[in-house]
UniProtKB/TrEMBL annotation:
This is Coenzyme A biosynthesis bifunctional protein CoaBC. CTP binds at residues 99, 109, 125-128, 143, 157, 161. Catalyzes two sequential steps in the biosynthesis of coenzyme A. In the first step cysteine is conjugated to 4'-phosphopantothenate to form 4-phosphopantothenoylcysteine. In the second step the latter compound is decarboxylated to form 4'-phosphopantotheine. Catalyzes two steps in the biosynthesis of coenzyme A. In the first step cysteine is conjugated to 4'-phosphopantothenate to form 4-phosphopantothenoylcysteine, in the latter compound is decarboxylated to form 4'-phosphopantotheine. Keywords: Decarboxylase, Flavoprotein, FMN, Ligase, Lyase, Magnesium, Metal-binding, Multifunctional enzyme. In the C-terminal section; belongs to the PPC synthetase family. Pathway: Cofactor biosynthesis; coenzyme A biosynthesis; CoA from (R)-pantothenate: step 2/5; Cofactor biosynthesis; coenzyme A biosynthesis; CoA from (R)-pantothenate: step 3/5. The keyword Membrane does not apply. The lineage of its organism: Bacteria, Pseudomonadati, Pseudomonadota, Gammaproteobacteria, Chromatiales.
């Protein structure tokens, strides 16, 4: 095979969950392990790209040749990503970002009471939408995690968020989050491809190849 089209290109990737604090010891999060996004970072580095991985809390090791920036909350992931997006050729949003955060997290540990407590939530900024809306936006691949109507909802997110491509995965019933294997329906304006089911590492290699081809064609 010839030289990779992604050689020396700059790729920015988000991965993992975010943690939204409730008080000093508690948080709201989700089941993302970071595996999909970390595998994409590893595959991009293998293809010769300069890779920065903005990682929510994950126990996974940093892939070889990847620069890792650790964050906790969606707001931290948003600013860490936006400040690096202008320098990127490609942005991949594989993180499972919390749509909401607790409006006013307590600074200490909240005491147990007899009455059931309530939490006031407020929306988080949409990282991938904000990157795609930048004047000099990188080529942007988003993800969609759906339990039903996969293609329909993914198509909606592709359009609503102004993305170049979207990779949709079915979640629930032992698919998508946390597990090793995944299947992706990749959609762009005018086409699509099914990748997998296969282990996330292989899937990431196939996705990076497809992404390189589309980025190259769009230049
Ligand atoms: O980490 P693993 O355990 O390996 O699991 C992988 C995964 C299932 C988490 C991954 O493949 C995946 O689908 N990630 C996106 C999950 C998700 O949050 O999807 P969504 O449909 O809620 O969001 C759509 C897109 O908008 C995603 O690209 C997401 O990163 C992005 N987003 C969402 C909200 C927000 N505030 N900012 C964002 O950038």
């Amino acid at each position: 095979s010839g030289p990779s089209v992604l050689a020396n290109r700059t790729i920015l990737i988000t991965a993992g969950p975010t943690r939204e604090p409730i008080d000093a010891v508690r948080f709201i999060a989700n089941r993302s392990s970071g595996r999909m996004g970390f595998a994409i970072a590893a595959a991009a580095a293998m293809a010769g790209a300069r890779v920065t991985l903005i990682a929510g809390p994950s126990a996974l090791p940093t892939p070889a040749g990847v620069t890792r920036v650790d964050v906790q909350t969606a707001l931290e992931m948003h600013s860490a990503t936006l400040s690096r997006a202008e320098a990127a050729d490609i942005f991949v949003a594989a993180a499972a970002v919390a749509d909401y955060r607790v409006a006013e997290p307590a600074t200490g540990k909240v005491k147990k009471t007899d009455a059931p407590p309530s939490l006031q939530l407020t929306p988080n900024p949409d990282i991938v939408r904000d990157v795609a809306a930048m004047p000099d936006a990188p080529f942007t691949l988003g993800f969609a995690a759906e339990t039903d109507d996969l293609i329909h909802h993914a198509q909606g997110k592709l359009n609503a968020k102004g993305l170049d491509m979207i990779a949709a995965n079915r979640v629930g019933d032992g698919l998508g989050f946390e597990v090793d294997d995944n299947q992706l329906e990749v959609i762009w304006n005018g086409g699509g491809a099914t990748l997998g089911p296969m282990p996330k590492r292989q899937l990431a290699t196939a996705l990076i190849k497809l992404l390189g081809e589309h980025w190259h064609a769009a230049r």
